[in-house]
Sequence to fold (552 residues):
Amino acid sequence: MTALALPAAARPAPLALRRGAMRVVLIAAGLGVIGLAWWLGAAAVAANPRTSAFADFAPGPTFARFWLMLASGEAWAMTAPSLNRILHGLAIAIAIGVPVGILIGASPSVRTATNLPFQILRMVSPLAWMPIAVLAFRSWDEAIIFLIAVAAVWPVLFATAAGYRRINPAWLRMSRNLGARPPHLLWFVILPAILPDVLTGIRLAVGIAWVVLVPAEFLGVTSGLGYAINDARDTLEYDRLAATVLLIGLIGFALDLLCQEAQARASWIREP
Amino acid sequence: MTRRGRGAHVQIDALSHRYRRGSGPVLADVSLEIAPGSRVALIGRSGCGKSTLLHLIAGLATPTLGAIHIDGRRVTGPDPSRVVMFQEPCLLPWLTAARNVGLGLSFLGRREGRKEKIAALLDLVGLSAFADRNAQDLSGGQQQRVALARALAVEPDLLMLDEPFSALDALTRAALQRDVRAIAERLGLTLILVTHDIAEAVALCDRAVVLAGEPGRIVADLTFDLPADRSPLDPRFAEARARLYAALAGDLAPPEAATEASPPTPSVRPVPVERSFSHA
Ligand SMILES: Nc1ncnc2c1ncn2[C@@H]1O[C@H](COP(=O)(O)OP(=O)(O)OP(=O)(O)O)[C@@H](O)[C@H]1O
Ligand SMILES: [Mg+2]
Fold:
């Protein structure tokens, strides 16, 4: 009658529940600290007569403007062209990075021959190609897509090449034994085997491409998130500028979540 | 007994093999003929080249010297008509048991009746309940059975089993031995079985070839004449086991000692064939 009769609230909550509650508290605390820093910074800016023109950076005006941008469709109108460029650039990076990565993984001589040039090229900031991109392509859009592709190709390529090592030679032998020809080996063994690594590479590439996108869109084009940032600066609408920064961060975060989800679904690798 | 006569005819002529130029040979001057539809056990100590010989017959490697002909055609590469079930089950870890079984059918583009065939093979190896389970979540013995079903799925003329039941308990092993024997008999296919288990060799095969030495050579070639049911209680079964044991023991001890050590009945001594020791 004693232990069983205790009211539910008096018993300790199940461990999972307590962990979940703790998580929510920690996440709220993190956001709270960032918000507070933002608010304090904005207050300091507003109090200083030399910088008070920038007071609209504050959380209040920013969120108000953010909702307005979402409601009016302005947010989507500036995001769509950027997403379009990102997707094109990534598609090109994958179309080049995966086959070349497989070649490098499969052939030691290709690996040796390409290692030095690729390691050097990889270290060049994609933005350094900007003048060349502007000369080489007819439209600004193409130039931006080129810059994104240049930024995104390396993580895809190196992750694919590294993933090739996951392939057990016995899988290929067994498959040839059962009648597999090279296209079968590619489709049934090599691609599924390296898929988790390719997705890791794509996730890295998405992160880099998203970062490169904004400065690339400072150039020439009259659409997209980078252009919106520049435009807000020129028109002195600092609440719009801050709201666009917020939008960029949130969409980048969402893209990364998507990649993470794809990784989780496609991975066959068991954690030991 | 429906599809007799599908078994492959294997001819191996003066085969020698080394894995790398400059490294020592693994097989030396192996010659062997296997009649269509017969079942041959390949026995020998670890490292004597049994798996290597299977890989060469499968066409997964090219012999350094000598040639292999199957049904009169020289082996130049792999072919699904001769399949090895490898020593390691080697399942694809991102596929389910059923999809692993169907792998060869995918390569051959055989779609019709695929589902039923996979189901029947999984049933045969006792894994119907595990069809949709990921290969990584199967026990070692279950993986071996999936690998067996996968090899059978492509209906080879020559089935080579490399220690196929090493991870199985005695009962499952006995059941699968019976099934493999029945399948081989029914389809008339040629079977080569690598095993370290003398009883298994006698239970499944009509003939045993003993490899020994470094490089591996054929040192004995025995045939068993046993009734189809292969009851282990049959005295002829025990006699065949004793003969095979003596042949293997002959590899351990010098030849004269082996003769002494062999059981008293003359018929249980290793049967020297014309090729044995002839190239030594
Ligand atoms: N890929 C390889 N490269 C070089 N040497 C090899 C290779 N595979 C096997 N060998 C060597 O060839 C010899 C025969 O190997 P094999 O695998 O054919 O032996 P086995 O008779 O199947 O042995 P076990 O009963 O242990 O499976 C061994 O000495 C082994 O070390
Ligand atoms: Mg072996």
Notes: The pocket of adenosine-5'-triphosphate (ligand 1) is lined by residues B 19, 26, 44, 46-52, 87 (CB under 6 Å). Chain B has two domains: 1-81+174-280, 87-155. The CA atoms of residues 6 and 188 of chain B lie 6 Å apart. The first helix of chain B runs from residue 50 to 58.
